[in-house]
Specification:
Layout lengths: L9 H4 L6 E3 L8 E2 L16 E3 L5 E2 L2 E3 L2 H16 L1
Antiparallel strand pairs: 1-5, 2-3, 3-4
The protein binds zinc ion.
Zinc ion binds next to loops.
Length: 82
């Protein structure tokens, strides 16, 4: 599985710290806090995340459990594949 793709491997999911932050557009776990160059203002509360996989900027989706995230990631994959 390539880095940045939705991680649906339970062995991986179960090692993730919760809540799990994921991109709302592509379900990637490869999201990070924004930097100044992304338009963030230092020392203020973070209001969005940047997805390193698809470039989406917005609120990350938070999942309290790995199965919840896995279900979402599987839905994303299914939709993208038609
Ligand atoms: Zn994304």
């Amino acid at each position: 599985m390539a880095p940045g793709n939705p991680g649906v491997d339970p062995a991986v999911l179960n090692r993730l710290p919760t809540p799990i932050s994921a991109c709302s557009q592509c379900a990637s776990l490869n999201v990070r806090a924004p930097e100044v160059r992304d338009g963030a203002i230092p020392s203020t509360a973070l209001t969005f995340m940047v997805c390193l996989n698809c470039g989406n900027r917005g609120q990350p989706l938070l999942f309290n459990t790995a199965p919840e995230y896995a279900a979402f990631a599987n839905d994303i994959v299914r939709v993208r594949r038609g």
